Amino acid sequence: MFWSSAIRRQPAFREGARLMAPVALGIGAWGLMTGVAMVKAGLSPLEAVLMTVLVYAGSAQLAAVPLLVAGAPAWVILVTAFCVNLRFVVFSLHLRHYLMHMPRWRRLVHGYLTGDLSYAVYTRRYPQPPATQDERDDQEAYLVGGYTVNWACWVLLSLAGVALAELIPQRWGLGFAGVLALVGILASMVTTRLQVLALLIASATAVAAYSLPLRLNIVLAIGLAVMAAFWIEQQLAALSRRRAGEAG
Fold it and tell me: What pLDDT, on the 0 to 100 scale, is given for residue 88?
């Protein structure tokens, strides 16, 4: 973790932090907008600060806050937040092979602090789990360096948004700027045809179901995109097995 001097001394820590730095502006814009949005939606500054530090999930926060303010049922809020963050289940399943040699408490800390972009940068740098102790130390330092920058940019600017919420007028359009920044960052992570298809399905569903109450269009969009991508992936795998059998 970033408080460990042994990890910070690793060259990979500095490399991970350096490569994450260019996207810090987008993360910061999203965090600032989220901080402002939480206060503007009706949360107290203390509630917004606690949500920033404890939840640490911008998309889930923005989806849950209007539901909290509207007095939506708890199950709707929980299901919405779960669906919005469903991608982290996939991330954790993938990272399991990288981190299983660590104690549970250490894995939990890494899981909490690893965000979308730090995960993407890390797995792109290390497509295979470590095989030796030196590789384990190197990969952990790289992961920590990346998510330290990610976490610091998000939390500091989100807290700045909470503090400055009453001074920042709505006409500045921070929400739109934050959305554009996040869309630009996430679009660069879509690298396969299946991911593009899932993105198109989710986008089309969210727009088509926009009239649903309590932002259930988000839940529906994520659910359909995940199920469609999973079904297509299974069909492609079955087709590949059939072709391999015919070739054999």
Answer: 85
CA-based angle 148:152:155, to the nearest 5?
135
d(CA 164, CA 34): 12
Q: What is the pTM of this model?
A: 0.73
- Residues 148, 200, single domain; the answer is no
What is the tally of structural domains in the chain? 2
Same domain? 153 vs 43? yes
pLDDT at 13: 93
- C-alpha to C-alpha distance for 76 and 137, rounded to whole angstroms: 41
Query: Is the per-residue pLDDT at 175 higher than 60?
Result: no
Instruction: Give the pLDDT confidence score for residue 181 in this predicted structure.
Output: 59
Domain boundaries, position 16: 5-169
Give, to the nearest 10 degrees, the angle between helix 193-208 and helix 216-247.
Answer: 150
What six digits make up the tokens of 216?
């259930």
Identify whether residues 24 and 92 lie together within a single domain. yes
How far apart, in Å, are the Cα atoms of 84 and each of 100, 152, 221, 243? 26, 22, 10, 36
Over 60: is that where the pLDDT of 58 sits?
A: yes
Task: Return the residue matching tokens 């206060």.
Answer: 39
Write out pLDDT tens, residues 97-131. Answer: 899 999 999 999 999 999 888 888 898 899 899 99
For residue 138, CA distances in Å to 15, 128, 129, 200, 240 come to 10, 13, 11, 37, 36
Let me know: does 29 contact 172? Beta carbons within 8 Å: no
SS3 state at 183: helix
CA distance 1 to 110: 7
Whether residue 208 has pLDDT greater than 90: yes
**Is residue 126 within 8 Å of residue 139, measured between CB atoms?**
yes
Q: Does the residue 20 lie in any domain?
A: yes
